[in-house]
Amino acid sequence: MSPRRTRPARRSASSVAADDDGETGLAHGFESIEVDAHGDEWHVRRITGSSSTKTYRCPGCDHEIRPATPHVVAWPSEALDQRRHWHTPCWNARDRRSARRR
User: Fold this and answer.
1) Closest Cα to residue 72, out of 91, 55, 57?
2) Is 63 within the bounds of a domain?
3) 20 in any annotated domain
4) How confident is the model at residue 36 (pLDDT cuts 50, 70, 90)?
5) How many CA atoms lie within 13 A of 41 on its CB side?
């Protein structure tokens, strides 16, 4: 009996999408559309820690999101220029509190 192969499945070129910076790949996380309590649609992309390489500021708590920290990128359906990086708990609690700025 031969040993079991543990190679990952290949991804087709059609499953790889480019983001607005021109970067491609699935390393940016999984994207979905969520509807908030006010009925607004948001595009939400969950970012893995390994694909997070920059420092961002969370609008929910006004603290830094350090590199290698899993987090959420969200923007209104009609406004890609309003894309923001959120801590995952801050994004989940956004209906219970307002955005903060120092």
Assistant:
1) 91
2) yes
3) no
4) confident
5) 8
